[in-house]
Amino acid sequence: MANYKDTLLIQNTDFEMRAGLKDKEPKIQEKWEKLNIYNKKIKLNDKKPLFILHDGPPYANGDIHVGHALNKSLKDFIVRWKNSNGYKSPYIMGWDTHGLPIETAIAKTGVDRKKVSPEVFRDLCRNYAIEQIENQKKGFKRLGIFTDDKVIYRTLDPSFEISQLKLFAKLVEKKLVYKDLKPIFWSPSSETALAEAEIEYQDVKSPSMYIAAKVVKTSAWKNLPQDHFIIWTTTPWTIPANQLIAAGSEIEYVLVSVKGDERRFVIAKSLLPIVGETIGWEEPKIIATFLGSELENSTYQHPLYEKQISKVVLGEHVTSDSGTGLVHTAGGFGEDDYQLVKREKMQAFAPIDNSGHFDKTIEDKDLIGVFYDDANKIVGGKLTENKNLLKMKWITHSYPHDWRTKKPVIWRATAQWFVGLEKAIPQIVTHIDKIKTKPEWSQNRLKSLIEGRKEWTISRQRLWGVPIIGFYDKNDKLVLNSEVVNFAIDILAKEGTNVWFTKPADYFLPESYRNQNHTKETDILDVWFDSGCSNIALQERFPEFKRPYDVYLEGNDQYRGWFNSSLINSVIWDNQAPYKQLITHGMTNDEKGKKMSKSIGNTIDPISIANEMGSDILRLWVASTDYTDDQKIGTEILKQVGESYRKIRNTVRFILSNLVDFDPEKNYQKKLNPVDEFSLHNLTIFKQKITQAYESYQFNLVYQLLNNYVNNELSAFYLDFIKDILYIEKQDDLRRRQVQTVLYEQLWVLIDSIRPILVHTTEEIYDNIKFIKKEESVHLLDLRKQDFSIKSEQVNNWNKFLIFRDEINKALELARNEKIIKKSFEAKLEIEISSEFEEMVKISDLEQILIVSQIEFKKVADPIYSGKIGKVCVQIREGSKCERCWGIFAKLATEDLCERCHKVISD
After folding, report:
1. Structure confidence at residue 149 as a pLDDT band (50, 70, 90)
2. How confident is the prediction for the chain on average, in pLDDT?
3. How far is it, in rounded angstroms, from Cα 383 to Cα 367?
4. How is the cofactor bound (predicted)?
5. Is 554 annotated as a binding residue?
6. What is the pLDDT of residues 39-96, one digit of tens each?
7. Which of 546, 565, 532 lies closest to 428, judged by CA?
8. Which helix (H) or strand (E) covers residue 329, if one does?
9. Which has the closest alpha carbon to 95: 476, 550, 537?
10. Torsion over CA of 787, 793, 796 and 798, rounded to 10 degrees?
11. pLDDT at residue number 716
């Protein structure tokens, strides 16, 4: 018996089944770089409308992590889609380069910033930041990001720094910037002030103390020497700095006596039961009752220093919800405390230095030089000794921490620079109402964060950053006006900001201010002020980029960070929002949903994934996620994504293999079979849905649509039955060319659908298409226009056919289970068709589409299956098997060939 395998048109393509992405991707990236593909595409799009996705700057420190990969891939999907779909969308990557982490990195090399000149230290920081940027660039390149990594923005660039200082000058001009002594978040571990955006909360154990303060004089009752106010605190180290006790004017207070203690105590009446139980009082007895307003101007002895007499004042912030209803007030260590002390025309007392140690102003030798947290024990000991500590117990509560060092922060009154926001907030909020957000609820989040801000601390006590331009006269009075600020900016624009730290004040002052013993400000601007200026700096550098930019896309932690500072700066600059739309993604966790941590050992390195599996797999993982929520990633998840990739790749490989001999110029068929038209109609619907998903940034929907189309529409239907046509018919057979025409269009829709995501794979696919005039890269192409819609009546009929086909497949499966047939092509179907599905009788090539040998429409007495379509009987087809096509026929044309195969071979 002859072997007819060589007569079949089973063709091969150089597009391999095994992806080998880890080896191919770097070569493809080298090709893009060598041919300058990004800039060529931007130039091709030159006359198209601009679409600007403004890149939020990652910090220039360390290797890129999987969060960077998520962020940059999402941005890349958008930029690539827009550039292929009617827009010019340049992507300028940015980096945040100033601040503490880089200073810390330099310190770890053994450099003490206090022992080298400012210029030397700043140059070391600058060089380190540039090295880190180059390192991160390599990481982003390995991910296949569509950009020119030589055209970037860095907050350390002189032009950027000057744009930033121009904004500072605008704040001065609008009288929105000022310097004041206020309690702010202070990080002893970083030795600098922090903004609210740099604070995160963690549960900690703290000593909770109930403390007695002896009453000296009051008009609320006839006081005796044994009378005491009770205050409560979870920060005993602030007790040495106590300046006042605050009472609530409408709160009812009581004087109580306690069994076993000669002293009498004052607390809020409503808190007596819980305080009494906590301290362990027996039979507390109320002696007198009075309102808080009656306590005003009462005096008391300091709990530690009996010679220090202070008074009771009224405070609106005082409640009787917790504590004792009498609030320990240390003006240097709390916002409400500070306001009360200021109201009383007192100087806030904050005897803690930058590193968190008590300084000499405390005048207590036991505390000088002691770290604030260690002072709790000393204070507790002193209070125990003088019998003013009534009770101490440990409590667990939420406490602010430095988000970089992860160590506790304190409220500390220091002289800082602020931007006053109260006047600007209403104007800023009107812009928020016009901004689209994804997810939608996040608009309210941004609004609440903005509305809650009264001022912004913009100064930092560091060296590596943009200097705050300010001067002080010989009496230490601040000299700040537009004239001196703009004069200094002009000098810094010519000579660079380093010169601020090396030249005397007179060098930067107009002539009329010189020789008057002025000094310069030493603080630098907050890094959030730096990055918050990026939208302004970018427009000054690229005047064609018009704000508001189309999209900002960052992690959901940026509502209190970059989104916030960008909006404030932009609106203050020229009453313009920086963005039209905000998109946020969640954080990346391990497969179990746990936060990634080097100490736990559950981190995922994106470059390792790229070098082992390919960055296209990592990008496909990004597309598979609902990025608006937190994401899980790990080996098993990536394997699942890899399986989806394999199915896409194998489908494309099948199509490419069967287009090896297809020249669109010569072989493309405009007149098609009805089933081909239906397949192209479905292709059109698929492309419309894919387009909609990309336009709405629903990349997980793109992933779902793609998998469904490849697995169901193509592999399980059209590609399944056309193998008989592609392999068996003559090469130039009309039906074969019709099917190839459909495959050709399907290939292009797959290319357009995966191009923003599987960027390397798409390039490989494009390289393997035959008979077309090609550009240097698939990424230079625009989306192919494809619309093959057919009439709704035809669509309805074919949708009915799909139901018909599903039920036939159920009947065939039953027949296989009952050993009637082994393969569907052996089957003869007898169908008693229902009236609803009578149109199926008219479909040509029905046996071929259903992959069976024979169909008869007739009455069925003994069906194997009954359903909507009617009754179905499955039998083995009686006859002889063609050794070429494997069909079963009543009669063969030759000993082992059917008539069709005999004719093909003969021709």
Report:
1. very high
2. 93
3. 14
4. Binds 1 zinc ion per subunit.
5. yes
6. 999 999 999 999 999 999 999 999 999 999 999 999 999 999 999 999 999 999 999 9
7. 565
8. strand 326-329
9. 537
10. -70
11. 84
Using DSSP's 3-state secondary structure scheme, residue 357 falls into strand
Q: Are 206 and 232 in contact, with CB atoms under 8 Å apart?
A: no
Amino acid in position 332: G
Q: Is 267 helix (H, G, I), strand (E, B) or coil?
A: strand
Smallest CA-to-CA distance from 238 within 369, 346, 375 is with: 375
Angle at 343 between CA 341 and CA 348, to 5 degrees: 25
Residue 52 φ then ψ, to 5°: -110, 115
Q: What is the 3-state secondary structure (H, E, C) of 672-728?
A: CCHHHHHHHHHHHHHHHHHHHHHHCCCHHHHHHHHHHHHHHHHHHHHHHHCHHHHHH
Task: Give yes or no for a contact between 98 and 527, defined as CB atoms under 8 angstroms apart.
Answer: yes
Distance (Å, whole) CA 547 – CA 530: 18
State the SS3 of 166-234. HHHHHHHHCCCEEEEEEEEEEECCCCEEECHHHEEEEEEEEEEEEEEEEEEECCCCCCCCCEEEEEEEC
Does the annotation place 598 within a ligand binding site?
yes
CA angle 639/645/649 to nearest 5° reads: 140
Do the annotations mark residue 882 as ligand-binding?
yes
Fill in the DSSP letter of residue 360: G
CA 240 to chain centre: 44
Cα 468 to its chain centre, rounded Å, is 31
Hey, is 836 helix, strand or coil? helix
Q: What is the mean pLDDT of residues 186-198?
A: 83
Under 8 Å between Cβ of 399 and 206:
yes
Tell me whether residue 125 is annotated as binding.
Answer: no
Give me the count of residues in the chain: 907
Burial 452-469 (b: 16+ CB within 10 A, else e): ebebbbbbbbbbbbbbbb
CB atoms within 10 A of CB 596: 17
Burial 251-273 (b: 16+ CB within 10 A, else e): bebbbbbbeebebbbbbbbbbbe
For the stretch 814-864, pLDDT in tens is: 999 999 999 998 999 999 999 999 999 998 889 999 999 999 999 998 999
> CA 588 → CA 230, 320, 634, distances in Å?
48, 42, 10
| Residue 885, annotated as binding a ligand | yes
The span from the CA of 84 to the CA of 694, in Å, is 12
Q: In the chain, what are the domains?
A: 5-15+628-780 (1.10.730.20), 48-156+544-613 (3.40.50.620), 164-194+411-428+439-533 (3.40.50.620), 204-407 (3.90.740.10), 792-876 (3.30.2320.20)
For 417-526, where are the alpha helices, taking DSSP H only? 425-432, 442-451, 482-495
Best CA proximity match to 659, nearest among 719, 761, 737 = 737
Amino acid identity at 268: A
Reading the block at residue 833, the tokens are 């068709």
Residue carrying structure tokens 């990633």: 633
**Burial class (CB within 10 angstroms; exposed 0-12, middle 13-18, buried 19+) of 180:** middle
